[in-house]
Amino acid sequence: MRICRFNKDRLGVVDGGSVFDVTAALDVLPSSRYPLPSFDPFIANLGQVRQCIDELLPSAARLALEDVQLLSPIANPGKLVAAPVNYTKHLEEARADAGVHHNGKIEEIQRIGLFLKANSSMAGPSEGVAIRHPERRNDHEIELAVVIGKPGVGISRADAWSYIAGYCIGLDMTVRGPEERSLRKSVDSYSVLGPWFVTADELPDPTSLDFQLTVNGEVRQSANTRDLLMDIPALIEFASSFYTLHPGDVIFTGTPEGVGPVHAGDLIVAEFDQIGRMEVAVRAA
Ligand code: MN
What we know:
The chain is of the alpha+beta class. Helix content is 16%, strand content 33%.
């Protein structure tokens, strides 16, 4: 199932060029009062939500996909985990390009581990990317985003797949420079998720997905998830050896070679096999 959030926090099922409005399925979520949970309630209750969606679908209002504003499919993740330099050719380009490495040593992911992006940096495709520090280099990074489905800590590689709820396309937008990654990659709108959430049963094998990013029609990044250095189960095992993963936590799995700058006025198109395609406009903050 492909589930989107659209317009003013509506819930939809995407089928071809149509979106079916199933917002009423959110009524099954438990009402919460302060303090709010540190996980995403929609993903935590996905089974129940899907049952309700199945009941609503036959009579759901149908909209044209091209007419809706797509939001981040996950509204309240507890954390955005991200993998640096997780493709060999990106590691090589980062080490070769002073505009990327800024005289810092680019270490392998096995040595530097993972980082976190602020949740407040999350945006949906329709919201676009708003460039801060336009005098500096602001790069696109297309990545497979893995959404965790149930709580777990110390998850073994063998069990890792059962912790995945589904997938999205992620853009890990980045201000290049000498600061910590978590600062440079946490600018408002610098974590784009979309175009929708594809449930794991709909995408049983994400280990060989072609994906591509263009800027104003020019292909910048084109790769396949089979070339991940630390693969999806390894990322889950590694992350959960440090902290509990909660439903709705998102893992940005890393970007391949071809990163490059974008500027206000550019149009990014990000496409993933078996997930979909999203257009993300770039503007000045
Ligand atoms: Mn990245």
